[in-house]
Amino acid sequence: MKGGRREFIAGAATALIVPRHVLGGRGYTAPSDKLVIAGVGVGGVGRSYLKGCESQKIAVLCDVDTAYAAPTFAIYPDAVRYQDYRVMLEKEKGVEAVVIATPDHTHAQIALAAMELGKHVYCAKPMTRTVAEARRLKKTAA
């Protein structure tokens, strides 16, 4: 028996050191390489913003009007649902990014709450209503 156990172990170890694209195919993205996204205000234009993020993991949806958001909920049936973004941010620790498409006057406060927790934020315009809100968001982002 030439080589025996040592050759087998060396061969097995080599099989474990294979680039991800070889195992998953070209263009494959491992689930661990996808951003975990929450959408806030998903009943209207938020639905189209989420569509642009479908290459990632859309895990959480939040809208105060669940009837209006029902079509979006149907598109992402596995997503956890909330009506209050504050509760969502408190409970969903695994969220990495938040897409905000709520009415204009709420953008800054939701973005600020998400940023204070270290989340990435994509926000519909206008992001703020006042210069003071813009300065506070800039300071928090820095």
Task: Give an account of the 3D structure.
The chain is α/β, with parallel strands linked by helices. Helices cover 44% and strands 15% of the residues. The chain contains seven helices and five strands. The chain has helices at 5-16, 20-24, 45-51, 66-75, 85-91, 107-116, 131-141, and strands at 36-40, 57-62, 80-82, 97-100, 120-123. A five-stranded parallel β-sheet has the order 3-2-1-4-5, sandwiched between helices. Strand 1 (36-40), helix 3 (45-51) and strand 2 (57-62) form a beta-alpha-beta unit. The longest helix is centred in the first third of the chain and has 12 residues, at 5-16. The termini are far apart. The relative contact order is 0.13.
Task: Detail the topology: elements first, then pairings.
Blueprint: H1 5-16, H2 20-24, E1 36-40, H3 45-51, E2 57-62, H4 66-75, E3 80-82, H5 85-91, E4 97-100, H6 107-116, E5 120-123, H7 131-141
Parallel strand pairs: 1-2, 1-4, 2-3, 4-5
Helix pairs in contact: 6-7
